[in-house]
Amino acid sequence: MKIATLVLAVAFLAMPLAASAEKAKTIDELAKMYDSSSCKSCHAEIYAQWEKSHHARPLMGVKDGLMMTPLAKKGGTAFSPDDPKKATVKNYPCFKCHLPQALTSAEDSVAVEYTEALLAGDKAKVAKLQITCITCHSDKAILHKRELGEPKKGVLYSTKAVASHPDGTFKSVEKSAVMSDSVYCGQCHGLGPNFDSDQVFQCANLYGSYLHNYVSGGGTESCQDCHMKKGDHLIAPNWNDQKGSEELLAKAISLDVHTLGYEWLKKAGTLVPKIVVGTKITTTAGHRIPDG
Amino acid sequence: MEVIAKYKDKDGKDVENKQDRQYHPQATNCRDTKMKYGAQWKVANIRDTSLQPGQAKKETIEFDLPEGVRSADVTVNLWYELTNPDQKFPIHSITKKVSLDK
To answer: For residue B24, what is the nearest residue in chain A, using CA coordinates?
Structure first.
């Protein structure tokens, strides 16, 4: 009995320590935990595309805007901490998509450091936090966890399996059937209000628009079909690229204009010179524009 | 999208009339009627004028011209706009000359 009690006591003490040992305490630790730079040596082209993508700078907004700064300010939003030193991961519901690993692998001390970095405008520090290869090819790769379990340690997931993957940490690649499907992107490129939060908020509606306005109209292409052609990991648009974004938009959106000039008989004896301009905008996109 | 009609009035002075349309989802916090910008404040869309897949967005925009004016140059500019930061991406610009004479 004494031994059993001792074992239970040790287990009770050890559990939180073990859990915390697996979590990052600092931004640097979290960045290191999800560092994908080793992927670059074999996947140079994909890595270069990703480096220019919004996934590589999910907390930087457009043009390094540090868009979450309002959340760091006391009273700035309903989520904001009263004291930066007491910030927790829960103060940043945006992490759900903008930094999913923060919810699984970061101590609240990371939120404290992040809050202080935002308040100080420390872009270099915030930029270390990225949605990396590991985020998508491991953490977010399985949607059927009751059937398939959690993503396995040491395994990456992709649209094709690779029996032997020459990497020190991820030694094999297994197939994840959902990774070629729009639902995979829909995990973050949202449905609408986040009702799972105690303070409902709404970010992207894109996947909702895809489901309810594109699929319902007979659309069959996936997000990947259009935004990841030939495996492109830029996953355009890249709003920091003015020219590239203009070209993408011009390709996806058409504008037709027709005009008519005539004299309108407003009332007897009163002709009003009038111009009528008809515009018609169409899009090839499988989702609402604008959205994200 | 902005639609601009330019013409000369009867005194030869350049006149420019403009109308615009905005296409985007519009959300509030559902506790008041003020539109919000930013996910941390938005709760749900209350209106959506955005471009939707498979649906053409059509407009008919009219300009009444002063008596005696018989023609105008019409320009339609379409762009994508990120309001934070203020950043515009021109998409299309189409100009047409419109005459009231046969």
So the answer is: A290
Task: Report the sign of the C-alpha dihedral through residues A8, A9, A13, A14, in that order.
Answer: negative
Q: Determine the longest span between alpha carbons in chain B, in angstroms.
A: 57
Q: How far is B18 from chain A (nearest CA, A)?
A: 12
Chain A contact set for B4 (CB, 8 A): none
**Rounded Cα–Cα distance for residues B14 and A203 (Å):** 44
Collect all residues of chain B within an 8 Å Cβ-Cβ radius of residue A272: 64-65
* Closest A-chain CA to B55: A282
pTM of the full structure: 0.90
Please indicate if any CB of chain A lies within 8 Å of the CB of B33.
no
The dihedral of CA A100, A104, A106, A111: what is its sign? Answer: positive
Question: Which phi and psi (to 5°) does residue A277 adopt?
Answer: -115, 120
- Chain centre distance of CA A211: 18
Residue A134: burial class (beta carbons within 10 Å; 0-12, 13-18, 19+): buried
Query: Where do we find the tokens 């403009």?
Result: B18
Query: CA A269 to CA A271: how far, in whole Å?
Result: 6
pLDDT per residue as tens digits for the range A200-250: 999 989 999 999 999 999 999 999 999 999 999 999 999 999 999 999 999
Q: By the CB < 8 Å criterion, does A236 face chain B? A: no
Predicted ipTM > 0.90: yes
